[in-house]
Design goal:
73% of the residues lie in helices and 7% in strands. It has six helices and two strands, in the order ααααββαα. The protein has a two-stranded antiparallel sheet with strand order 1-2. Strand 1 and strand 2 form a beta hairpin. The longest helix is centred in the C-terminal third of the chain and has 28 residues. The two termini are 24 Å apart.
Length: 146
């Protein structure tokens, strides 16, 4: 349990530090998560995005309105179910997302290079592989139990 606690704390601490260092361009983590989900998986309904973010659909309304106002997403009517709206990431949204991820990874790479020795960087690469393996197993367990 100590390892699990330490891993959880450390991963959250690194994530929070990276988020705090991100330029304040008005895009919250939730907005970037929406763009990321649409970029990776294509169109989605507001209900599917709310489930992905684990928030109530009503809570998503203002977030989506801001993304649409900034021309980062588009809405269109679902041809199969005319009552439903489908959301897509726009070209501007994809560009902004790719740049944000690139900038974040560049800053993290600089930090790794300046803070860790080459041997520690090798250990970090091994730890990343282990974390990916844990994520795969955790995902499979969640799918099997749900």
């Amino acid at each position: 349990m100590d390892t699990a606690n330490q891993l959880h704390r450390s991963a959250l601490r690194l994530l929070r530090r990276m988020q705090a260092a991100r330029p304040t361009d008005g895009l919250s983590s939730s907005k970037l998560s929406v763009l990321g989900r649409l970029h990776r998986e294509g169109t989605a309904t507001p209900t599917a995005l709310a489930a992905y973010l684990r928030i109530q659909p009503q809570s998503l309304t203002r977030l989506l309105a801001d993304l649409q106002h900034r021309n980062l997403i588009t809405r269109r009517r679902d041809e199969a179910d005319r009552r439903q709206r489908l959301l897509e990431i726009s070209a501007a949204g994809s560009k902004l997302l790719v740049e944000a991820v690139r900038d974040q990874r560049t800053e993290l790479a600089r930090t790794i290079a300046s803070a860790l020795t080459p041997a520690e960087q090798d250990l970090l690469r091994i730890a990343c592989g282990l974390m990916d393996r844990l994520a795969t197993v955790a995902g499979a367990q969640a799918t099997a139990s749900g």
